[in-house]
Write a structure and sequence with these properties.
The protein has about 130 residues and is of the alpha/beta class. The protein has 2 domains: about 35 residues; about 80 residues, Immunoglobulin-like (Sandwich), CATH 2.60.40. The protein is about 30% helix and about 30% strand. It is built from 1 helix and 8 strands, in the order H-E-E-E-E-E-E-E-E. It has a 4-stranded mixed β-sheet, with no helix packed on it. A 4-stranded mixed β-sheet has the order 3-8-7-5, with no helix packed on it. A hairpin with a 4-residue loop joins strand 1 and strand 2. The longest helix is centred in the N-terminal third of the chain and has 35 residues. It binds copper (II) ion (CU). Copper (II) ion binds next to loops.
Length: about 130
């Protein structure tokens, strides 16, 4: 009985110190991940109901934006400034991924669908 009374606090101490070791390992692993993994985000824009959703996305250079056509008709993504294609024509279910460059002349990249020019969206860049 005396032995048991001694053992219980000891095992609690063992469990709590084990937990603190595990927690500190998790924190240091998190720091390692931040240093070694790229910070680039992946964003998705759904094309649905003749709209880009969301139609204004905040991105950083190096992020990946993927447009996914969920409509029953083809759509595409054209740069509004130079009227050049960013994506190929996307049939139903097709998607296109774009690596966002550093915007030089503007903080936004406005785009539209060449088949349906009233469909517009933009990528806004944080500096
Ligand atoms: Cu379209």
């Amino acid at each position: 009985m005396k032995n048991f009374q001694f053992r219980k606090p000891f095992s609690l101490l063992l469990v709590s110190s084990l937990l603190s070791v595990m927690t500190s390992y998790a924190l240091s692993q998190d720091k390692v991940d931040k240093l070694t993994k790229p910070v680039h985000k992946h964003h998705q824009v759904q094309i649905t109901g003749f709209e880009f959703v969301p139609n204004n996305l905040t991105v950083k250079a190096g992020d990946i934006v993927t447009w996914v056509n969920k409509d029953v008709v083809p759509h595409n993504v054209y740069d509004s400034a130079d009227k050049k294609a960013i994506s190929p024509d996307l049939a139903t279910g097709e998607s296109f991924s774009y690596s966002v460059p550093a915007f030089k002349t503007s903080t936004t990249l406005d785009y539209f669908c060449s088949f349906h020019p009233s469909m517009m969206g933009k990528l806004s860049q944080q500096r």
